[in-house]
Specification:
The protein is built from 3 helices and no strands. By secondary structure, it is mainly alpha-helical. The protein has helices at 2-11, 13-24, 28-48. The chain has one domain.
Length: 50
């Protein structure tokens, strides 16, 4: 998991900063939705890797 999380700041640090700047501006509900999508995506990746 840390390998995937480290790819964007390693390859494109400016895009990584911009992404986090935009996430700070999101409302709580929007941020929760992003978190939910991340959880579902992670679970799907785990299921597909079995």
């Amino acid at each position: 998991m840390l390998v995937f999380e480290g790819l964007l700041p390693f390859i494109a640090p400016q895009a990584w900063r911009e992404t986090f700047r935009r996430m700070i501006e999101l409302k709580d509900g929007q941020l929760r939705f992003v978190g939910l999508i991340s959880i579902i995506g992670g679970l799907l990746l785990m299921l597909l890797s079995r």
